Amino acid sequence: xxxxxxxxxxxxxxxxxxxxxxxxxxxxxxxxxxxxxxxxxxxxxxxxxxxxxxxxxxxxxxxxxxxxxxxxxxxxxxxxxxxxxxxxxxxxxxxxxxxxxxxxxxxxxxxxxxxxxxxxxxxxxxxxxxxxxxxxxxxxxxxxxxxxxxxxxxxxxxxxxxxxxxxxxxxxxxxxxxxxxxxxxxxxxxxxxxxxxxxxxxxxxxxxxxxxxxxxxxxxxxxxxxxxxxxxxxxxxxxxxxxxxxxxxxxxxxxxxxxxxxxxxxxxxxxxxxxxxxxxxxxxxxxxxxxxxxxxxxxxxxxxxxxxxxxxxxxxxxxxxxxxxxxxxxxxxxxxxxxxxxxxxxxxxxxxxx
Length: 354
Hints:
By secondary structure, this protein is an alpha/beta fold. Helix 1 crosses helix 6 and helix 3 packs antiparallel against helix 4. The strands form four sheets. It has a six-stranded antiparallel beta barrel with strand order 12-15-14-13-16-17. Strands 3-2-1-4-7 form a five-stranded parallel sheet, sandwiched between helices. It has a four-stranded mixed sheet with strand order 9-8-11-10, with no helix packed on it. It is globular, with a radius of gyration of 21 Å. Among the domains are: 147 residues, HUPs (Rossmann fold, 3-Layer(aba) Sandwich); 62 residues, Adenine nucleotide alpha hydrolases-like domains (SH3 type barrels, Roll). One of its GO terms (biological process) is methylation. It is found in: Cytoplasm. It is an enzyme of class 2 (transferase). Its EC number is 2.8.1.13.
C-alpha cells in the first residue's frame, strides 16, 4: 500500500512510520505545520509544531529512508480547532481540542488530501488498534487514545493505520532507540498543544476579554464575582476566587455554567454526580444502532467510565448510567464501548449536551 505517515516529531509517530516501512509499504512522511508561530522553540513536553519538532520529523524520515514533506494546515487548524475551542468555552462548554483535531485535521483535511493524491492510508502514532476496520482500545491502557479517535467514521477508519497500539510505551521507546531515532527519549507532549505555557485561562482571556458575572450557590445566593465563564469548567475545584468556605467547611466545585447571564453555580462535590444526560451529534464508528443498547461509556480522555444504556433520540442520544459519574461536562465527548468482557471495541461517540 501507499501510506502517508504523519510525523509529529515525537517517538510514537516515528515508530509507527518505521513499522509501516518494515511491513513493506510504500511510505511517505509528512509533518503537519499547524501553528502560526513555528519559529518558537519547544519547551520540554509543552507545545507542538516547533522548529525542533519539524527538524526531528525530518531526521526520522532520513533515518528511515523515506521522502519527507511539510504540509501547512495552520489555517484549517486555527479555524476548526482553536476557534472551536474558544467558542466552546465562551458558550460554557468544556471542549477537547485533541478530539477535534483528529476529527477535522488528521482524518478529514489530511486524509482527504492523502486519498486525492493516491495514498491508500494515513498512518499515525495513536495508541489504539484496528481489527478488520473495528476500532479497539490500545494494549497500553495508560496511553490508550481510542477516546479521542471515537469521532471517526467507518469510511475514515478504513484508511487509517495505528501501528503502535499493540505495544506498551516503554517498548516503543526501546524500539526507537534500537533504530537510532533521536526521538527515542523525547518527552511526551501534554496539556493543550497550542497553549505551550499551560495558561488556558490567560489564553482565553486574551481572545474573549473580561465578561464579568456572578458566582452563586445552589440557592442562588451570590458568593462572589468573576471575569468570565471561560475561566471555569464543570467539576473545577481550584481557582474559584471565593473568599470564604462553605458553611460545612467542605470544598466547593463548579456545578453549572450559564454563559448568557454569566452565572457560575458552585456547590458540594456530591451534587456533581450524574445518572442521566443527553448528547448530540453522534458518530458511529461501527455502524448506527437500530435501537437502545448496553455499553460502557467514557466521559473524559482518561477515566470516568461506567456501564450504561444508550437510547438514540431524534436529536442525539440519551445516556442512562448504571452508576453515577462525576465530571460530566457539556462540550466533552462521551465515547461508547461494547459491553462485553473485554469492553475494548469503540462503538461511537457524541457531544455531551446537558
